[in-house]
Design a protein that fits this description.
The complex is a heterodimer.
Chain A lengths: L1 E12 L2 E12 L3 E5 L6 H9 L6 E6 L2 E2 L5 H4 L2 E3 L11 H11 L4 H14 L15 H13 L5 E5 L7 H18 L2 E6 L2 H7 L2 E6 L2 E6 L1 H6 L4 H6 L4 E11 L2 E6 L2 E6 L8 E6 L5 E3 L5 E10 L3 E8 L2 E8 L11 E5 L5 E5 L2 E2 H4 L1
Parallel strand pairs in A: 3-8, 3-9, 6-7, 7-8
Antiparallel strand pairs in A: 1-2, 1-4, 4-5, 9-10, 11-12, 11-14, 12-13, 14-20, 15-19, 16-17, 16-19, 17-18, 20-21
Helix pairs in contact in A: 3-4, 3-5, 4-5
Chain B lengths: L6 H27 L4 E2 L3 E2 L6 H8 L1 H34 L4 H10 L6 H12 L4 H8 L11 H26 L3 H8 L4 H30 L2 H7 L6 H12 L2 H30 L5
The chains are: A alpha+beta, B mainly alpha.
The complex binds adenosine-5'-triphosphate and magnesium ion (MG).
Magnesium ion (MG) binds next to helix 1 of chain A.
Chain lengths: 357, 283
């Protein structure tokens, strides 16, 4: 059953449309991410849900009630802002207890629940610290505890991890996800980091220029992006423009820079031009003469993986190969590059090939 | 052996010299002058005495004037807070170009010479000024604010409000406006947000503005002398009278030293209070 529904939500700032016809249904307990490049309207969407921006058009329905025109202090939603927006003149306990105080909860219960919330985010030992005396990660947890303590029906997170360093960010991703599953709060996360969205969410909403480009579960989004924008934005990929040479029931042949590539089992019909998307990790490098010839231009060791840039007859490609413990290829090495059937996503001008046909 | 790094001292030396020559020396001389006695026929004496201070402390006339100065300073400061702090807040909520325009309006008075501005008030307040004519037309009789506390207060507040707006404005700029949004989403009403979230965060600005307004009022001369005149003397105008009319320079110096001393005590203790209260909260 739908718990939170955004119906054709639109926001204009004068002539400029920041969010356009966003339509989204979220289940109770679901973790949904809004993913998109900077300026695509993620924050604006979140702020409309919170009541901090008034929608130009559309409706927001929470648990069956229309809350579109309800002021933010009557909605009871928990928000973690990108800047954390802690109250600098209150210590951690004071920050967390503020929401409870506004609910009219008595002093002793307030203190107790604030302490419990701080414990939940593993910060009970810093309950008396002021925001200024805490690290970024600690502040972030206080902000989270402050939002969670009021037991909001929906938790809204606006890039809560973007100010943390890489290692802490990864830890917090897991912690945040576990915490969310433990308390089962419906959560919307805004992020421009595709890894964050893929790793934490039940579903990801990709936004482009104020509109929804695709809504899908992480794996599906990654494996079957609906158009070129999503394919390029979510994960790394090699995009190759190709001309259709022949198409039929049993398969098609496309040409890239005079080189032919077979696409068995794919009937490209009357299409003339397509774009192929090849994920770097789906490519296989081997010495056996299979696929296309490749020459290594650059080899970068990333620890768990090798990242190669290779020269092939169909263009320069990125390839990632798992680190097997033995030395990888080095610059100038000649090798062969192949990929399994079905590893190629094909896009026409209208979008993904197998959805448009 | 520990070597003393001379660079900081050398670098600050010109400034120190400049200030000690041009500010320190006259102050020390004023202080020394206050320790001489004065004779109406013979002039300044060569003796060393605390008689002037004793005179001030035993004469109720001086108490009235010091009390009035203190009262005026407090009143002007409070009014500056009540007008300047909301003004800065509203300004910070405005959008450009209105914000720039109104900021200029607020700071405008500072661009006009204090004497010119005060004379303007005098014309407005005077016997047959605009104020008197208006009140007469309303059947309230001719109200004149010349030579009154009210008149001085109005004119001083007008001059000093910008000195409150600027520091409050600065602390508003430092504030994260999202902390207000956060409080709203936690269920606070707009009024509670101002009282519990905004006000505490701009309090350092209000306090530093208060210190400026208080000190400037306590030492103000032009406005009290034009609007307050002889009838509403404050310490600054009294010092002037001692120097220029009575020619009792040692007494003038004594009053000046006491005014300076009182100002320093009040301001440093206010400052201490602010620092202790907010050390943990703000840099
Ligand atoms: N108050 C405003 N007035 C005018 N335009 C605005 C306003 N707020 C946002 N915008 C515009 O709306 C668009 C979407 O802004 P929004 O803050 O939602 O982006 P975002 O997706 O959160 O980006 P980021 O990842 O950089 O935070 C931007 O182009 C921005 O310039
Ligand atoms: Mg944003």
């Amino acid at each position: 059953m739908t718990f939170l529904r955004l119906e054709d939500l639109t926001k204009r700032f004068g002539e400029f449309t920041a969010v356009e016809n966003v339509d989204l249904s979220i289940e109770r307990g679901e973790f949904v991410s809004l993913l998109g490049p900077s300026g695509c309207g993620k924050t604006t969407t979140l702020q409309m849900i919170a009541g901090l921006q008034e929608p130009t058009a559309g409706r927001i329905v929470l648990g069956g009630t229309d809350i579109t025109r309800l002021p933010p202090n009557k909605r009871g939603l928990g928000i973690v802002f990108q800047s954390y927006a802690l109250f600098p003149h209150m210590d951690a306990t004071g920050n967390v207890a503020f929401g409870l105080e506004m609910k009219g909860i008595g002093r002793s219960e307030r203190q107790e629940r604030a302490r419990a919330a701080l414990k939940l985010v593993k910060l009970d030992h810093l309950a008396d610290r002021f925001p200024k005396e805490m690290s970024g990660g600690q502040r972030q947890r206080v902000a989270l505890a402050r939002a969670l303590v009021i037991e909001p029906p929906v938790l809204l997170l606006d890039e809560p991890l973007s100010n943390l360093d890489a290692k802490l960010r990864e830890e917090m991703r897991i912690e945040l996800r576990l915490l969310q599953q433990e308390i089962g709060v419906t959560t919307i996360l805004v992020t421009h980091d595709q890894e964050e969205a893929l790793s934490m969410s039940d579903r990801v909403v990709v936004m482009e220029d104020g509109r929804i480009a695709q809504i899908a579960a992480p794996l599906e989004l990654y494996e079957r992006p609906r158009d070129l924008f999503v394919s390029d934005f979510v994960g790394k990929t090699n995009l190759l423009e190709a001309r259709v040479l022949s198409a039929g029931e049993r398969g098609s042949v496309v040409g890239i820079e005079g080189h032919q590539i077979d696409l068995p089992g794919t009937d490209l019909g009357k299409l003339d031009k397509v774009t192929l998307s090849l994920r770097p990790e789906k490519l296989v490098m081997s010495d056996a003469a299979d696929g296309v010839e490749a020459k290594v231009l650059a080899a970068i060791f990333l620890g768990a993986n090798w990242l190669y840039r290779v020269q092939t007859p169909i263009g320069e490609l990125f390839v990632t190969q798992p680190n097997s413990g033995r030395p990888g290829f080095s610059n100038g090495d000649k090798t062969w590059l192949s990929w399994p059937d079905g590893a190629v996503n094909i896009f026409s001008a209208e979008g993904r090939f197998d959805e448009t046909h | 052996m520990k070597r003393i790094n001379a660079t900081p001292y050398l670098l600050t030396a010109p400034g120190v010299l400049f200030f000690s020559a041009l500010l320190g020396a006259p102050m020390v001389m004023t202080l020394l002058l206050s320790l001489h006695s004065y004779d109406y026929t013979l002039g300044i004496q060569d003796d060393w005495t605390l008689a002037n201070y004793l005179d001030v402390f035993t004469d109720s006339y001086f108490y009235v004037i010091f009390g009035r100065t203190l009262g005026l300073s407090l009143l002007v400061t409070v009014l500056c807070i009540l007008i300047g702090a909301p003004e800065a807040y509203i300004l910070s909520r405005m959008r450009n170009p209105w914000r720039s325009i109104f900021l200029l309006v607020v700071l405008g008075p500072l661009l006009v010479s204090v004497v010119v501005r005060t004379l303007g008030w005098a014309i407005l307040f005077g016997g047959n000024g605009l104020l008197a004519k208006t009140t007469a037309a309303l059947g309230l009789g001719e109200v004149s604010l010349m030579y009154t506390m009210t008149g001085m207060t109005v004119a001083l507040v007008h001059v000093l409000v910008p000195f409150m707006v600027i520091p409050v404005w600065a602390s508003l700029q430092k504030m994260d406006p999202q902390s207000e949004d956060a409080a709203l989403t936690l269920g606070a009403s707009p009024f509670t947000v101002i009282r519990r979230i905004t006000l505490p965060q701009i309090t350092p600005g209000i306090l530093s503005g208060s210190i400026i307004c208080f000190a400037l009022t306590a030492a103000a001369f032009a406005t009290p002398s034009i609007i307050g005149g002889r009838r509403m003397k404050v310490v600054a105008t009294m010092i002037y009278d001692e120097y220029k009319n009575t020619l009792n320079w040692p007494m003038g110096a004594t009053l000046a030293a006491l005014l300076l001393f009182a100002n320093i005590v009040i301001i440093t203790s206010a400052n201490r209070l602010v620092e202790r209260r907010f050390a943990k909260v703000f840099e």
